[in-house]
Amino acid sequence: MPTKKLDFKTGQYVVYPTQGVGKLLRVEEQTIGGQKIKMMVIDFERNHMTLRVPLDRAELSGLRPLTSTKKMDEAIASAKGRAGTKRMIWARRAAQYEENINSGDPMRLAEVVRDLQRRSATDTMTFSARQLYLRALERMAQEFAVLHKMDLESASDKIEDILGVPKEIDLNAVDEDDEIDEDSPDDDGDDDD
């Protein structure tokens, strides 16, 4: 099956399905098994990884340019919808979510975010559901961050704000009114010497 050549430029951000957003550093020629092969060298700074993808296998590997801002907005809008059906057992659903995350497709990532996000501050998540949610959100945020020229944390926060995901309750936070002033005298009036 012939594959069409994708037109990538050095310095361009690209999406590799199983790794997320990376930057195309260069195209180099390597000799492998006596054959000269052109390889795309992609840096995934967040993962501290460099990946080499044969140029003629780029499309087959799922490598793609960043999505458009419009398509990203559509994906986020779809993540605002009602959660999908939860009739299958968790192991099967988790495998399906994992497949969606590794697809690198913004709409499929949005499905995972939509199904696993907390709808209220009292909602709880299992550890595995939370990990899947955070991975899907991060993958969406990576692309969103590059499209909107912001850092990853701000992009994640922005997506969750758009979706209306309630903020985590910080159990370690102390109200200023609740703080005890150790230098103040006891309130009982007598002096304990």
Shape: elongated
Could you name the CATH topology of the largest domain?
A: Methane Monooxygenase Hydroxylase, Chain G, domain 1
Give the strand order of the largest sheet, numbering strands 1, 2, ... along the chain.
Answer: 4-3-2-1-5
Mean of all residue-level pLDDT scores: 84
> What is the tally of beta strands?
5
Largest sheet: 5 strands, antiparallel
Please state the CA-atom Rg, rounded to the nearest Å.
23 Å
Proper CATH architecture of the largest domain = Up-down Bundle
Helix count?
Answer: 6
Low-pLDDT ranges: 177-182
SSE run: EEEEHEHHHHH
Distance between the termini: 90 Å
Give helix % range. 25-40%
The CATH superfamily of the largest domain bears the name CarD-like, C-terminal domain
Strand-pairing-aware structural class: alpha+beta
Strand content: 15-25%
Tell me the quaternary state: single chain
Count of individual domains:
2
CATH class wording of the largest domain: Mainly Alpha
In a nutshell, what does this entry contain?
Helices cover 38% and strands 18% of the residues.
Detailed description of the structure:
The protein has helices at 58-61, 69-79, 90-103, 106-116, 127-147, 152-163, and strands at residues 13-16, 20-32, 35-44, 49-54, 64-65. It is α+β, with helices and mostly antiparallel strands. It has 2 domains: 13-65, Thrombin, subunit H (Beta Barrel); 69-163, Methane Monooxygenase Hydroxylase, Chain G, domain 1. The chain is elongated and about 60 Å long. 22% of the residues are buried.
